[in-house]
Amino acid sequence: MIDTIFLWEARMEEQIGGKYRMELSQTQFSLSTDSIALADFARVFSGARVCDLGCGCGALGLLLLAKCETLQVTGVEIQEPAARCAAENAAQNGLSQFSVLHGDLREYRTLLPANGFDIVVSNPPYYPVSGGAAPEKLPLAIARSEVCCTLSDLCTCAAWCLRFGGSFFLVHKPERLTDLLVTLRENRLEPKRLQFVRHHPEASVSLVLVEARSGAKPGLTLQNDLILYTSSGEKTADYKRLYHEET
After folding, report:
1. Is the Cβ–Cβ distance between 98 and 76 less than 8 Å?
2. What is the DSSP string of 84-109?
């Protein structure tokens, strides 16, 4: 269970609770609700082999290991500074069970073992590419937009490295949900569980959490929405669970 994660981006420090320490380079995103909600949504088990596709500086891997310390986590990251940062974060927390590969997931056949993981997770780029990014903004563009990784690339890689019956957990934007479900099925990853995230009960859906299973039969379960704040702006039980503020 997470007690604390310290997060640095530029000169900002963010505290979330109390077990691991995490540093980010100035060009990387800070820890977001996306990864925190995905770690909560993902169903893991002791000793599971987990692959995080597009691991950035290792936030999702740390969150999952805080949830279950016996996981064997492999992060894959195309951006060398972020991959180095993820490896350093694993090392400074004494997590020998968290390894990081600097590589392009589109080269999955040489990068990752076929059927080598029980669980794959990803907080991928959400947006189709629209115009070129300035060089100084390219790291964020790669993280936000499908510059180096499309939905098809992501699902093809996940299908390759998941064992039969293994689960793929990911977070995405609601406007891409149709594309996501179609692409998963094209890769024999059957959508099995879906949860919407809303800021408050009347708000539009801001995120979707999806579990797909390799080789599974059709049948999708829609979970209750994850709601962060009440209509009056107070933190909900969901929020307090995610951020470990329960009394």
Report:
1. no
2. HHHHHHHHHTT-TTEEEEES-GGGHH
Predicted confidence (pLDDT) at residue 30 exceeds the cutoff of 70:
no
SS3 content of the chain, % helix, strand, coil (to 5): 30, 30, 35
In a domain, 14, yes or no: no
pLDDT digits (tens, 9 = 90+) for 164-217: 999 999 999 999 999 999 999 999 999 999 999 999 999 999 999 999 999 999
**Closest C-alpha to 184, from 164, 209, 162, 212:** 212
Provide the residue range defining the domain that includes 117: 31-242
Residue 74 falls inside a structural domain: yes
Total domains present in the chain: 1
Q: Report CA-CA distances (Å) from 74 to 29, 58, 77, 95, 117.
A: 20, 10, 10, 11, 9
Q: What Rg value do the Cα atoms of the chain yield, rounded?
A: 17
Q: Give the CATH number, domain containing residue 209.
A: 3.40.50.150
The answer, as to whether pTM is greater than 0.85, is yes
